[in-house]
């Protein structure tokens, strides 16, 4: 039996649970830990006769997920493990009996995920779990994109902004960064396809990468309007539920007709549900700015964030079903 510290004893006797404790308890139940650990295990260092024994894999995965949920850097996460009892318990570590990972250990674990593109597999495994639970079963896709800003500063060694990021204008305002394109299931709202590009990439250019082979309907805003894709989708037997684009003021019939406005409202009532994922990403998880330079490192993080966003979005349906 592990010896308890005075801090642990006082923690057990406190009178109310914090929001963080309730959130972590919920995530403990809905995340399919054994499935996700199995994805990483073949690539994780094994214990040997020499050298320091590696940290438990599941503890490292739990810590990595907490970094995504609370937007913590490696040094901030190391400090949190020493300071916050609820996070330490979620990681299944003890302050007295276990060696807590330092920021270098956290960095190496992230590099392991990046090197083997394991977050792509984590998202696929989460989606497979959702399908087994009967959550994401429709044959329609909602598509959308959101901009995540990057630092435009040139105060660095190269004296340049990140060359893989670009600027774009939206609603008469300029943004510098990258763009996340998602395809989400119409029935559940869960993301099934994700791509990451520079911010100046047109939304419609990523449309073929966001659809599933068995999709029968596609919903999108006016940014995806295209006569070519519309004809192609109908030839394939797919319902084209993309909003009509407003005609410019100098055209013969500017704006939208009353029929087009009504049709757009009906389609938007379905399509707008994809925005819930971006709310989780930016408001719940605090992912409002990119953390790393270059698209690939940020893409790896986005894939893990989307897997966690799916679980958080559908937590009410998953509670009590995960082992």
Concise structural overview:
The chain is α/β, with parallel strands linked by helices. The protein contains 13 helices and six strands. Strands 1, 2, 3, 4, 5 and 6 form a six-stranded mixed sheet that branches.
Task: Give a description of the structure.
There is one protein chain. This protein is of the alpha/beta class and 323 residues long. It is built from 13 helices and 6 strands. Strands 1, 2, 3, 4, 5 and 6 form a 6-stranded mixed sheet that branches. A hairpin with a 2-residue loop joins strand 2 and strand 3. Helix 3 packs antiparallel against helix 8 and helix 8 packs parallel to helix 12. The longest helix has 19 residues. The radius of gyration is 23 Å and the shape is globular. It starts with 5 loop residues before the first helix and ends in a 5-residue tail after the last helix. The model has no long low-confidence stretch (mean pLDDT 89).
């Amino acid at each position: 039996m592990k010896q308890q510290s005075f801090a642990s004893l006082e923690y057990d006797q406190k009178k109310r649970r914090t929001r963080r404790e309730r959130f972590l308890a919920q995530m403990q139940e809905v995340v399919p830990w054994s499935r996700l650990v199995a994805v990483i295990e073949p690539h994780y260092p094994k214990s040997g006769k020499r050298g320091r024994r590696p940290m438990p894999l599941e503890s490292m995965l739990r810590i990595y997920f907490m970094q995504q949920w609370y937007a913590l850097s490696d040094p901030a996460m190391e400090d949190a493990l020493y300071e916050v009892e609820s996070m330490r318990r979620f990681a299944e570590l003890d302050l007295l009996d276990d060696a807590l990972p330092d920021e270098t250990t956290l960095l190496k674990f992230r590099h392991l995920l990046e090197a083997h593109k394991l977050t792509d597999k984590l998202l696929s495994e989460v989606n497979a779990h959702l399908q087994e639970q009967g959550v994401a079963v429709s044959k329609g896709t909602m598509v959308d994109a959101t901009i995540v800003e990057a630092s435009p500063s040139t105060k660095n060694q190269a004296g340049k902004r990140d060359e893989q990021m670009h600027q774009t204008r939206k609603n008469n305002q300029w943004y510098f960064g990258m763009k996340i394109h998602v395809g989400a299931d119409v029935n559940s709202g869960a993301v099934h396809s994700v791509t990451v590009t520079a911010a100046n990439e047109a939304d419609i250019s990523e449309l073929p990468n966001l659809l599933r082979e068995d999709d029968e309907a596609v919903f999108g805003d006016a940014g995806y309007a295209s006569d070519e894709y519309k004809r192609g989708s109908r030839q394939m037997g797919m319902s084209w539920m993309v909003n009509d684009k407003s005609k410019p003021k100098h055209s013969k019939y500017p704006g939208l007709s009353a029929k087009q406005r009504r049709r757009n409202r009906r389609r938007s009532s379905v399509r707008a549900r994809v925005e819930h994922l971006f709310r989780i990403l930016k408001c719940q998880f605090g992912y409002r700015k990119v953390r790393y330079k270059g698209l690939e490192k940020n893409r790896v993080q986005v894939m893990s964030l989307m897997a966690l966003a799916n679980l958080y979005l559908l937590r009410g349906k998953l509670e009590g079903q995960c082992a």
